[in-house]
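Meet my pick.
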Amino acid sequence: IGHPEIFPLLLTAKTQKNFNCRADEDVTEENCFKCIKKEDIIQDLKTRANTSDFHPLKKVILEYPGEELLVVFDPKFQYGQNFYIVASEEAKENLLKLSATAEETEENGEETLEVHKAWVSLGSEKEVEEESLKERDTKIKYKISRVRRKFGAPITFTDKNASDDKDSYAECTCYEDNTFSIKMLERDVGVQTIPRVRETSTQTKWTYPKNASTQYCTRQLSNEAKAETLSSETLKEFLTAVQIRMEIALQQNEIMDVFFDDWKALAEDEGGGKPDVYLKAYQSFTDVQYLKNRTISCIRWHPTIYGIIALSATDQPSYEEQVNLSNKSLLHQSVILLLSFFDPICLQLVLKAPEDIYCFQFSPSNPNIIAGGCVDGQVVLWDISKHEEKLQSAKPVADEITDSEGELTAVVIEVIQGPPPMQVQQSSTEPPLVRYCAASSIPYSNKKPATDIQWLPYNSEDDQKGGTSENRDENYLQLVTCSPDCSILFWDIPSIEHRQKFLSEKIKEEKRSYIPSDTDEDLDLSWKPLIKINLRERDTSTEYGPSRISLRELQYRYKTSGKAKSLSALRSPIKESPYTEIGASSSKNLEVLENISTNFFVGNEDGEVVYSVWKVKTDTNSKKPHSQKYTLHTETINTLQNSPFFKDIFLSIGGQKFAIWKEGVTNGPILQSSCSAGRYTAGQWSLTRPGVFFIGRDNGNIDIWDLVKKTHEPSHFQNISKSIITFISPSSASAEQHFLAVSDDLGVLHILEICQTLCHPSSNE
């Protein structure tokens, strides 16, 4: 501002070397001027084109009248860059003259004389004289004497009450001074204003209504009249006059859409003003019994029931506890908690687990089935179908809640609107405790924590009549888990019908033998994976420890040999689980479905993204995929997620970077971020806008990236917590209400409401 002839310019090290204007070598803060020929700059623009550092000022350089341009080194970034160009001859000469004058002054050693005005007294010396300290003419002297016999004796000091001796102190009591007492005169006055009222009247003249009707018919012309009109000169003149205008109107209708709303499109592109982007606090939740001193590891929204959200937590072990696993604390129970918006104080369900749950997922085909991965590598299943009515009946009114013993208790719950304080209150009714219905065999499970778990959908088979039928006697491959032990496991699960019947028979048997249904002693641990993939290099011993997996829609069908086993065979003996059949299965009976993609991506602990293409071979149980790795992140990848709008686009987050990848592009990501100041700890795509995603940071902030507006920095950020963000999960409750669940390292779950700007995409997004 104030210098229109100055244009800031960023010169890289290569350009500085080419034009002999290297910072702190050829040009310094004292000698900051460098004249460069205009022809050399034009030649650099022709050679390097858009990559030239002078390209942003190409028009200014070409219009410059002189032969040499003055380039000035700006070490303090006064104009925003490390150099700036002077685009006028007059300003160039002035700057060079000032520089020459300053150099001559330094060489001659001349000193500038400062001219001071004469001091004019305004009376301040009198005030200084009054405030100055002056000695008295006669000084007061005090003489203190002591009896000679007390010379050299020790001195003892004592305390006494001042009220005992009247002469030892003087009391200054307060009194009322009539000089400063002013009588206040008050007057009570009432004032009322009323509008001015005027009465008027109006009368309209009323006429008598009459019934009237009009009838018309088309005008019929005879053939002679039609021929005369068509051959008349008046019609020919009219057609000649309007022909050009009609042709232009028809062409315009073909060229552009006359019904297109330009004003609405302008509002979408420009926006008029800066829109409000924010995340509004909706609710906060924590629990002293289950979440104290624990980290929330995973959050999932219930797929079909509004307001139900599930979360799992893991311990925060110290370094000694990580080294010596035998010292594991037994104060916390390993559970998955289900809670409701309408009752944030009381838990709805508590799912018991053998170990802490690192990740879990609701089944997309049956939301009552939940699969989880433990920190010891086990895979666990829960069936909450018996408690589905309880979850659906959670409302902000007095409800009847059924506890684990079958008793009905009425509980009145008051829902706190807005962001309530994080308080935990004890309810008179304990939440139902649901035991897991199946757990995998520990020797055949992952050797390290199951860091990611994915559900695969059922496959339907066409019958001869053209319809679609599903074979209930087949086992379906439904689960995929990955672990840092360099393995990816595929698990098949029997039909839900077999498992429910098995559990019902099991409960009946327990009631007959008076065995409590909450014990885990009779749980069968013979569930084994169907397929195991080892992520290792073929020629070297390099291993990839996957922490996240992203795959296309995989579908496999496992057929049992011979006739399907009966339910009695599945239930005998009663202590065995229906998953015993899976433990003895082999991948030799596995059939690969046609037109199924076998490509998948994994992110490992070293920050590498591995793209693997594998095909099932029936002669071996262990599959060795052909892998292709990309090294971009510096730390463990914590997020690897497909875009909900594009099947071949996915997001990877780890360390201080994030990247967006496209399947089929083998030379790297299509978009990657620069290194941030802190670490990215979690992330998630938006469910309603293709160009928006959310990233959690280690300082408790949430970065909102809108690729339509900016790709080099987040469009908005907001602080959510004082601790590390551990997980993010969005949900679309309705077309007008969208939520974002965010958890932190302190065991607190934050429910945020997403603003409308981040929910409604533009027309061409």
Observations:
- The first strand starts at residue 6 and ends at 9.
- Residues 290-319+331-393+430-458+477-485+487-496+520-530 form a domain with the Methylamine Dehydrogenase; Chain H fold (CATH 2.130.10.10).
- Residues 233-255 form the longest helix (23 residues).
- The two ends are 37 Å apart (CA to CA).
